[in-house]
# Entry
Amino acid sequence: MHLASEADFDILKLLPAPTNTEEDAGPYFTMGMCYAADPETGEHDITIHRLCVQSKDEISMYFVPGRHLDAFRMKAEAAGKSLPISISIGVDPAIEIGACFEPPTTPLGYDELSVAGSLRNKAVELVECVSVKARAIAHAEIVIEGELLPNVRVREDQNTNTGKAMPEFPGYTGDAKAAIPVIKVKAITHRVHPILQTCIGPSDEHTNMAGIPTEASILQMVERALPGFVLNVHCPSAGTGKYLTVIQIKKRSLNDEGRQRQAALLAFSAFSELKHVILVDEDVDIFDMDDVLWAMTTRYQGDVSTVFIPGVRCHPLDPSSDPRFSPSILDHGIACKTIFDCTVPFALKANFQRSKFKEVDVKRFLPNFRP
Ligand SMILES: [Mn+2]
# Structure
């Protein structure tokens, strides 16, 4: 245990926060499970945020608009109070997946640790912090304890002036923010010889952490509205985990024609940050992007198989979601949600049978072959 009140306390002497590119605003913690409570209701929320070390005992915290911890922070700030927070690093992956769930699947007031508890069939063990009134993950490698200060903001790149923050999951280095909240660190606790877990964007690790909750959220919502219609959902790494989803459906009658597009609309409402939906039939392997693009090539006509829903708020880290990209985009973060319907019209199913290859009769060529 190291308390910030000790004279030689310095975050970077204790923890090797990595600086991943020349233009990073500073050293970042990228895999911190940030956990805090609503100052009014006591309900908890856990999410992962971009955390930049700003001084020996200060960390800046960036909130994409609408994040639940930010709602807690604003409530505390309105009352002139700081918000106690714990940052647990190096935890059970079930907690990392749970922390990436977002509304409406996990609305404000929903503690995403419940997802982790359900995955493991065992409640997540918590521990009281030593320096602030908050709880942390009991078996974390490292816990940073602190308080989000009211009415204090820093420029994210105040120490480097690079104009940039760090590499984000869409594959671009995000811009440094001009004024973001600050955590005053009060203590750091850790296991003996702790391992500092980190993660870079974009990476399969990052995009899967974003993608698995997206898939689960879409499946849950679509299944409720159209039971049995959607077979599977995949958010591939190429689509950042959050921006693109492939939905596999099965049309069973002429009556199902058009339902696939309804499934896509439901997906957009299940996950507001989703930008592109690719719809495919039951004979397409949604985990093989070659197969998905084959469907887009042979079962899709741009002018009739595409549905544009312009002017919808998606996600601010998509650089094409910007008024400079098109005057039709009114504000940064607004995008055109698009459905790519690569399913075969039900009436034409017979014309789209994939070639059915014969099984190889190995014994014809290798009489002694034993499988
Ligand atoms: Mn939440």
